[in-house]
Every structure is written in structure tokens, then in C-alpha cells.
Design goal:
There is one protein chain. The chain is mainly α. It has a single domain, classed as MetI-like (MetI-like fold). Helices cover 76% and strands 1% of the residues. The chain is built from 14 helices and 2 strands. It has helices at residues 2-5, 8-38, 54-61, 63-97, 101-108, 116-127, 132-140, 154-178, 182-190, 195-206, 208-223, 227-233, 240-248, 254-286, and strands spanning 41-42, 47-48. It has a two-stranded antiparallel sheet. α3 (54-61) crosses α14, α8 (154-178) packs antiparallel against α11 (208-223) and α11 runs antiparallel to α14. It is globular and about 75 Å long. The protein starts with a helix and ends with a helix.
Length: 287
């Protein structure tokens, strides 16, 4: 055994053992517990540990679960699309159009200096019936009465989440832009490409990995967000995570909550894999 530890493989295993143990305890073990719970059922006061598919059947046949799961994926997709579309020009500006990169990166991280919950409450104050936006529009005479569609719907959820996750989209895209060899851009210009052609034929394809990373970083946690829908979504903005929270909390039905969690993980994984495959194929076609 001591001889094995002297080899490169042994040293690698020894160095990775603490991290592997940490991941196993904090990731694999809770996931295994969720899987176990999903095959049990909740009685009035106790859990029946008889193995059954009842929870999965209920999750597959319940219209509310399907509706909330679809809404969650659509909202997360809209947040991802809006955030990446807004983040790309900012990342491009920092990478190519300014010398004060450190200052701009610092400004991007400023939202992290405050609580996520505080930022959500700020948007609630801005979009509210008597909030900042309605007050400003009323003062300027742009509207005669407060707008009611700004809050407690899917729009409010998408807007709030897009603002909250914007830095997570800007930074990966900026890194991918910064890594582009400027000689490629000069070669494209020498071959007769104008700025627009150079962007679509050189810059954009080379930053596809950054776009994919930014999209996954935003999409995956957004599907499971329940704080923002609870505060600014109202009944029209509820997502699948809100139903999970009810099952683990007020309903005290942990087996069904575990099942919904696993179903959501599988759905998000399938969508993410499909997105990566399609985006990679499109990136190659652009080239």
C-alpha cells in the first residue's frame, strides 16, 4: 500500500480523497436520501417505507405538476435568453472597447454586495401598484392610473431573476471573449470581412462555449427558485419549486416532495443536454 501512494496515480487519489469525501457527504448522500424517500409514502403521522411507484404516478398524472413544471422551464428559458442577450454586449464592451476592465468587472459584482432577498424586495417596491415606476409614470403624465400588470405575474419573475443573475452571464461570456486570439480578427479583416461579418463568422462562434456556460449557470438554478416567485410572482408566477416547498413544509409530504425534486432534476437535465447539443451544432454550422 505505501508503494502505491508513491505512484502518480496514488498521489492523485490521495489528493482528491478529501474533496471526493466532501462531495459524497454533501451531494451524493442527500441525493440518495431523496431517491429513497421518493419510493415511500406519507401516512398521517409516519412514513410507510414500502416501496411503491405511487408518487411518480401522481407526479406524471397530476395536471398541476405538469403545468408548473412547464411554466418553470419556460420562465427559466425566458430568463436565460433575456440575460444572455443583455449580457453579451456588456461583456463585449469590457473585452474589446475599454481599458478599464477591472473597474467594470468591479461594478458588475456590486449587486453581490447586498442580499439576494433585498434585491428581490427592491424590485417589488419598484414594480408595485404604488411603486417607483408607477409613481414616475403618473408624475410625468404618461399614464392616468397605476399599471397593474407590472407585478405578481411571469413578467415580474423574469425581470427580477434576469437582474439577479446578470453577473453570472456577463463573466463567462467575458472570459470567452477575452481568450480570443486577436490575430484571428485581424486575419478576418485582411480577408475582406467587415465588422458585422467578422463578428458572426469569428467572434460569435468562438464564444459559443461561454454562451453555453452562462446559459446553464442561469437556467439550472432558475428552475428551482422559489423565493422570487413567492415574492413577486403571485398566483400567476408560481413555479415547481413552490410546490416542492409546500410538500416539504405545510403538507408534510416528504416522499412526494422528493419525487417532485427528482422529476424536476431529470427535466432540467434533459433540457440542458438538448440545449448544449443544439447550440454546439449551430456553433459549428456558423463556422
Amino acid at each position: 500500500m505505501p508503494g502505491v501512494l508513491k505512484t502518480e496515480t496514488g498521489k492523485g487519489l490521495a489528493l482528491s480523497a478529501p474533496a471526493s469525501l466532501y462531495v459524497g457527504l454533501l451531494v451524493a448522500a442527500p441525493l440518495a436520501i431523496l431517491v429513497a424517500y421518493s419510493f415511500w409514502t406519507q401516512t398521517y403521522v409516519a412514513i410507510d417505507k414500502t416501496l411503491t411507484w405511487a408518487n411518480y404516478i401522481e407526479a406524471a398524472t397530476d395536471p398541476l405538476v405538469r403545468h408548473l413544471m412547464l411554466r418553470s422551464i419556460l420562465i427559466a428559458g425566458a430568463v436565460t435568453l433575456a440575460t444572455v442577450a443583455l449580457a453579451y454586449p456588456i461583456a463585449y464592451f469590457i473585452a474589446f472597447r475599454t481599458q478599464k476592465k477591472t473597474l467594470w468587472l468591479l461594478l458588475i459584482t456590486i449587486p453581490f454586495w447586498s442580499s439576494y432577498l433585498l434585491r428581490v424586495f427592491s424590485w417589488k417596491l419598484i414594480l408595485g401598484f404604488n411603486g417607483v415606476m408607477n409613481s414616475a409614470l403618473l408624475t410625468t403624465g404618461a399614464i392616468d392610473e397605476p399599471l397593474t400588470f407590472l407585478l405578481y405575474n411571469e413578467f415580474a419573475v423574469v425581470l427580477t431573476l434576469a437582474h439577479a443573475w446578470a453577473p453570472f452571464a456577463i463573466l463567462p461570456i467575458y472570459v470567452s471573449l477575452q481568450k480570443i486570439d486577436r490575430a484571428y480578427l485581424e486575419a478576418a479583416t485582411d480577408l475582406g470581412c467587415n465588422r458585422l461579418e467578422r463578428f458572426f463568422r469569428v467572434t460569435l462562434p468562438l464564444t459559443v462555449p461561454g454562451i453555453i456556460a452562462a446559459s446553464l449557470i442561469i437556467f439550472i438554478p432558475t428552475v428551482g427558485d422559489y423565493v422570487t416567485p413567492s415574492l413577486v410572482g403571485g398566483s400567476q408566477g408560481k413555479m415547481i419549486a413552490n410546490l416542492m416547498q409546500v410538500q416539504f413544509g405545510a403538507a408534510n409530504n416528504w416522499p412526494l416532495g422528493a419525487t417532485l425534486s427528482l422529476v424536476a432534476m431529470a427535466s432540467v437535465g434533459a433540457v440542458a443536454i438538448g440545449f448544449v447539443v443544439i447550440t454546439t451544432a449551430l456553433g459549428r454550422r456558423i463556422r
